[in-house]
Amino acid sequence: MSQPNGGNFDIVILGAGSGGYAAALRAAELNLSVALIDKAELGGTCLHRGCIPTKALLHAAEIADQTRESEQFGVKADLVGIDMAGVNAYKDGVVSRLYKGLTGLLKQDKITIVQGEGKLVGKDTVEVDGRRYTGRNVILATGSYSRSIPGLEIDGKRVIASEHALKLDRVPSSAIVLGGGVIGVEFASVWKSFGADVTIIEALPRLVAAEDEDISKTVERAFRKRKINFKVGKPFEKVEHTENGVRATIAGGETVEAEVLLVAVGRGPSTANLGYEQQGITLDRGFVITNDRLHTGVGNIYAVGDIVPGLQLAHRGFQQGIFVAEEIAGLNPAAIDEAGIPRVTYCDPEVASMGITEAKAKEKYGADKITSYNYNLGGNGKSQILKTAGFVKLVRLNDGPVLGVHMVGARMGELVGEAQLIYNWEAFPEEVAQLVHAHPTQNEALGEAFLALAGKPLHAHS
Ligand SMILES: Cc1cc2nc3c(=O)[nH]c(=O)nc-3n(C[C@H](O)[C@H](O)[C@H](O)COP(=O)(O)OP(=O)(O)OC[C@H]3O[C@@H](n4cnc5c(N)ncnc54)[C@H](O)[C@@H]3O)c2cc1C
Question: What is the disulfide pattern of this chain (predicted)?
Fold first, then answer.
């Protein structure tokens, strides 16, 4: 990274993760000069400790399962074992190729890369190791960290966070996963596929509780079948170290023992001691409060990514970064609709969703104004070829557009692209039902669900 001695820029960006680097790339395209500051590697959590390495592990896990289950397809293969060194080499190879590509993209005249820890010392200035970077505009994009709960210390050995889990040089014989949200179920899924005995502890009444209730039921059924243990609706109380690992106690006194405990209770905003409050920025439980144009209300300071309350997803950060760069350039971009951001949970079975759940739709519009339809993947040829179970669920406003698309089953994440177009273009089921879906694809399940909702089901079993 270059180490210039401060200077004046159109935009100073603090943090080069998904939100920060997307803002830098779009700003440079718009001919704005940028200082992009990061204390660690360009690419942030998503590239180095989040989306990419976890999805590489999940892909290796899928191969392990397919090898184990190959006989169902008439293929004879034995799963001899998981070579974690090999899995990690594959995962790290993917990360380093993407990192190299990103570094190349950011190496351009308009972008000055600054390596070091920055602090906001004025409404237009970030200081790094005594050097001052002043911007006509400032974008805060300092991301998030793995949270814990009071009294539960993450030691990185027995009690670990996702960044430690990604670096394990062995498959734990057993693991407790504290938290049944996205990160928790993804690691539970990987470790089970790799042969570990896994127990999830979740205080809320169901796994993936942010999703539609029908999705949770299907994930729980599939996890039961996979022998992934889970205890829902029971808050965690404490953890003790044992000779070989840890013992967790949950409400009611029940205990679970395992080699490691993964704390996956969410991500907190990285905003402490960065000078934000001193400059008058409003924080709520550490999150930076902005208006819908991502402006903090102070000077020309904007915020993007995980530090802004809402979905903590990389593609939301990308979109917010692009939005703010365009806003600064005076392009007046359309505000981002949070419900229009696609969500995927990459466990097995995969979960993908758009818009709002059936429960939220009924709460918002009244139960009599909402129609929902579940298309069972049992009727979808490609899903049967893959031997996956699940469904595509649609929620519509009667005589109105689609409000929610909720999908569960193998590879459902790949269908979220069409689902997001349908939602964001406020399509009516009758309009989507006219569109042709290739046969045999899982994509057809979406098409079939719309045919059924439009009153002309084809391969739909009631
Ligand atoms: C295990 C895991 C799996 C995930 N999987 C997915 C997924 O599949 N899909 C998805 O969309 N999202 C996923 N996410 C979430 C995704 O990684 C985040 O939403 C995204 O990285 C947020 O981008 P950001 O720019 O806000 O912050 P970050 O990516 O966290 O980047 C912030 C950057 O700021 C830098 N920084 C912080 N403070 C300072 C400072 N004072 N000075 C200089 N630099 C500083 C940091 O070094 C970092 O590089 C996952 C997250 C985790 C942890």
Answer: 46-51
Whether 202 has a binding-site annotation, put simply, is yes
Determine the pLDDT at residue 1.
Answer: 46
Q: What is the C-alpha separation between 321 and 96, in angstroms, rounded?
A: 23
What angle (nearest 5°) sits at the alpha carbon of residue 95, between those of residues 182 and 81? 75
CA pair distance 383, 391, nearest whole angstrom: 10
Cβ–ligand 1 distance for 446 under 6 Å, the answer no
- Rounded CA-CA distance 111/24 in Å is 7
For 294-323, letters b (16+ CB in 10 Å) and e give bbbeebebbbbbbbbeeebbbbbbbbbbbb
pLDDT in tens, 314-363: 999 999 999 999 999 999 999 999 989 999 999 999 999 999 999 999 99
Q: Please tell me if the CB atom of residue 44 comes closer than 6 angstroms to any atom of ligand 1.
A: yes
State which fold the 7-146+269-338 domain adopts.
FAD/NAD(P)-binding domain (3.50.50)
Give CA–CA dist 430/452, Å, rounded.
Answer: 10
What are the tens digits of pLDDT across the range 201-245?
999 999 999 999 999 999 999 999 999 999 999 999 999 999 999
CATH no. for 349-453: 3.30.390.30
CB 245 less than 6 A from any atom of ligand 1: no
The CATH classification number of 159-265 equals 3.50.50.60
Q: Is 406 tagged catalytic?
A: no
Q: Give dist(CA 48, CA 51) in Å, integer.
A: 8
Cα–ligand 1 centroid distance for 45 (angstroms): 3
pLDDT tens for 49-85 read: 999 999 999 999 999 999 999 999 999 999 999 999 9
Which residue spans of the chain are classified as CATH 3.30.390.30? 349-453
Best residue among 18, 91, 160 to mutate for probing ligand 1's pocket (most ligand atoms within 8 Å of CB) is: 18
Please indicate whether residue 315, judged by its CB atom, sits closer than 6 Å to ligand 1.
yes
| Whether the Cβ atoms of residue 177 and residue 188 lie closer than 8 Å to each other | yes
Instruction: Catalytic residue, from 48, 241, 315, 439: name it.
Output: 439
**Ligand 1, closest atom to CA 41?**
49
